[in-house]
Write a structure and sequence with these properties.
Blueprint: E1 4-9, H1 17-29, E2 35-40, H2 42-45, H3 52-68, E3 76-80, H4 86-95, H5 100-104, H6 107-116, H7 122-136, E4 142-144, H8 150-167, E5 175-177, H9 212-220, H10 237-250, H11 254-260, H12 266-292, H13 297-324
Parallel strand pairs: 1-2, 2-3, 4-5
Helix pairs in contact: 3-12, 4-7, 4-13, 7-8, 9-12, 10-12
The structure holds tryptophanyl-5'AMP.
C-alpha cells in the first residue's frame, strides 16, 4: 500500500517560484510514489480579506497552475476545500482539543497578526486547526510543504496524538516532508525575508505566470552584496538564494555551478539565471494557457476531485463523531 500524501495551497493570487520549488513541483514529481490528495484551500484564504470575484478567479488560476505543473487528475485527487464541508466541521471539533497556547506560538500567526493589528480575525488565530482538519480527514502519512508550514504540520500531529490519547486510534499521525534544497526561497528584493505572495514590492517574487521580460528585470534587480565571486555561501543570503534557484532549475551540483561561474561576476550569473528560469517556466506557462482555454475542463476536474474526496472525509468525520459521542 502506498503512503497517503495530502497538501494544500491558498488561492491568494501571485503564485510564485517559492511555492513551485518548495511544494507544487515536488508534489507533481512524487505522484507515482504516493497516493495523493491536493487541495486548493479557499477557506484558509478568507482568514484575510479577499475580494469575492478575485477569490473565485484565483481558485481557478491555482487549479490551472497545479495541473500545468504536472498534477495529473488520474493519479491524484485535486479539489477545492470549501467543496467538502467536512473540513469546516472537523476544524470546529479539533478547536476544542487545541490549547490556545499552541496557536499563540505559531510563527505565521505572530508575523501576520503583527502586521494586521486590530484587524486580526479569530480565523487567522485558528488557521492551524483548519489545516489540521485538512490533513487528518484523509489518514495522511506525509505532508510535503515548504519550511514555513512545518510548524503547522507539527501542530496537526500533536492534536492527532492528543485526540488519540483520549479516544483510541482515531487519526493517523502525519509527518511533514521538507525538501533538502529550496524549502525556503527568499525574496529577491530582501533575501532575509521569505518569498511571499503577500509582499507588495514589485521585485519581491517571480510569479509563475510572469512573462520573460518581467523575469529578466526582476532577476537583474535582485539584491546581492558588494562581493563579486559566485559561490554558495550562506553568509551572503542574496547570491545564495539566487544560486539555489539556479541549482533547482538546472539540477546541477553546487561545485559544477561554482566552476561554471568561476572568474565571472554577478551580472553574468544573473543573466544566465534569468534564461534558466524563463526556459524552466515556459512549458508550465504554455500548458497553463492551454488548460484555461479548454472549456469546462477545470470544472470537471474539480467536481470529480470533490466527489472522490468527500466519501473519504465523511468516513473519518463519522469516526470522530462516534469517538466524541456526537449525534
Ligand atoms: P501557501 O499557499 O502559503 O503555500 C503553498 C506551499 O508553498 C510553500 N511555500 C514556499 N516554499 C519555499 N519557499 C517559499 N518562499 C515558500 N512560500 C510558500 C508552502 O510551505 C506551502 O507548502 N497553510 C498552507 C496551505 C495548507 C496546507 C494544508 C498545506 C492548508 N491546509 C494542509 C499542507 C497541508 C499555506 O498557506 O500554503
Amino acid at each position: 500500500m502506498k503512503k497517503r500524501v495530502f497538501s494544500g495551497i491558498q488561492p491568494t493570487g501571485n503564485t510564485h517560484i517559492g511555492n513551485y520549488i518548495g511544494a507544487t513541483s515536488r508534489w507533481a514529481a512524487e505522484q507515482d510514489i504516493y497516493d495523493n490528495i491536493f487541495c486548493v484551500v479557499d477557506l484558509h484564504a478568507i482568514t484575510e480579506r479577499q475580494d469575492p470575484k478575485e477569490l473565485k478567479a484565483n481558485t481557478r488560476e491555482v487549479t490551472g497552475l497545479l495541473l500545468a505543473a504536472g498534477i495529473d487528475p488520474k493519479k491524484s485527487i485535486l479539489f477545492v476545500q470549501s467543496h467538502v464541508h467536512e473540513h469546516s466541521e472537523l476544524a470546529w471539533i479539533l478547536n476544542c482539543y487545541i490549547p490556545m497556547g499552541w496557536l499563540g506560538r505559531m510563527t505565521q500567526y505572530k508575523e501576520k497578526s503583527g502586521k494586521q493589528k486590530e484587524q486580526v480575525s479569530a480565523g487567522l488565530f485558528d488557521y492551524p486547526a483548519l489545516m489540521a482538519a485538512d490533513i487528518l480527514l484523509y489518514d495522511t502519512n506525509v505532508v510535503p510543504v515548504g519550511e514555513d508550514q512545518k510548524q503547522h504540520v507539527e501542530l496537526a500531529r500533536d492534536v492527532a496524538q492528543r485526540f488519540n490519547n483520549f479516544y483510541g486510534e482515531v487519526f493517523t499521525i502525519p509527518e511533514p516532508k521538507i525538501a533538502d534544497v529550496g524549502a525556503r526561497i527568499m525574496g529577491l528584493d530582501d533575501p532575509n525575508k521569505k518569498m511571499s505572495k503577500s509582499e507588495e514590492g514589485p521585485n519581491h517574487a517571480i510569479a509563475l505566470l510572469d512573462p520573460p521580460d518581467v523575469i529578466r528585470k526582476k532577476i537583474m534587480r535582485a539584491t546581492t552584496d558588494s562581493q563579486t565571486t559566485v559561490v554558495f555561501d550562506e553568509k551572503r543570503p542574496g547570491i545564495y538564494n539566487l544560486l539555489t534557484i539556479y541549482q533547482i532549475f538546472t539540477e546541477k551540483e553546487k561545485k559544477q555551478i561554482e566552476a561554471e561561474f568561476a572568474g565571472k561576476g554577478y551580472g553574468d550569473f544573473k543573466k544566465a539565471l534569468a534564461e534558466v528560469v524563463i526556459e524552466g517556466l515556459r512549458p508550465l506557462q504554455e500548458r497553463y494557457h492551454k488548460i484555461m482555454n479548454e472549456p469546462g475542463y477545470l470544472d470537471s476536474v474539480l467536481a470529480e476531485g470533490a466527489a472522490k474526496a468527500h466519501p473519504l472525509a465523511q468516513k473519518t468525520l463519522a469516526k470522530v463523531h462516534k469517538a466524541v459521542g456526537l449525534g
